[in-house]
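Give me the fold.
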Amino acid sequence: MMSAGPDKFASVPAAIDGDALLLPAWAEALVATVPAEIAKVGNVALQTRLTDDVSLVSARVARAADLASHDFEAATTRMYDLIAQRLSSADASHPVRFWNFIPGIHATSGVMPASGEVLDRYMVFNAGRYAACRQWLGGEDAFPRLLATASGVGHDGRDLIIHALAAAEPGNAVENPRQVPAYKYSHRYGPKPPCFARATTVTLGGRQRVLVGGTASVRGEASVFVGDLRKQVGETLDNLAALLQSATGDDAAGPHLMSDLRVYYVRAEDLAALRSIVSLACPAATKEFVRADICRQDLLVEIEGVA
């Protein structure tokens, strides 16, 4: 079913405000010279690039935003299942990082069965991801050890795209002591919680790295400093520091150790301020800024990257 072919995903990425929402440059560089294998399984398009040390599998469902809620959930589960199947035969088979690009992330998508509360598309996506991760990892008890880190942001297009980066050896999940693990969130955030670790430590390309997932102004499980960009960025940077300290055991670790950053921002008018604040906090890092919708409507910024 797999066949070698051109990198078609590079020419049809999800787009936000006219800018291609591709993988971060550091991740793309790991497989940039590897030919892509292209396949189609039902309505899921798959692209795979494999080396002995790293695998990158991308899945896409065109016009997923047009699907009914239960079909969108099923499509999410199917995409994760197909990624798991493809990685199972790769030399680098251990997932360490996911990027999820979700169309219309805040769109109303049904109601919660028990309470009647409105569900948005991110909650529906999380239900599909939860089912897949539970099957893939062998149950919820494995989540603290085996969940990979991730980001999940919204875009204005119609397609659902998931990228999975895998390594030859398992990574180690890292949590932030200032936050509730995402997979333990209450039903306030949907019938099933988001399935990801806050960070993953792993060896990639012969280097020990800390892969930092999408980090925002969340304390415990609640959004804080709603409406205040500068305070939200400050809280996000504090969370990055706590996360890196947990990952490295170094109390002096902080965002200044990041080598590559991607900053997702909601409002175009915030970009100049964000560039200034982030540059001061992380002067040595390569930085990407991408307009996107964050998973909660009260969050203005999310930062991910590598240390």
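The helical segments are 25-31, 69-88, 121-137, 143-146, 229-248, 271-281.
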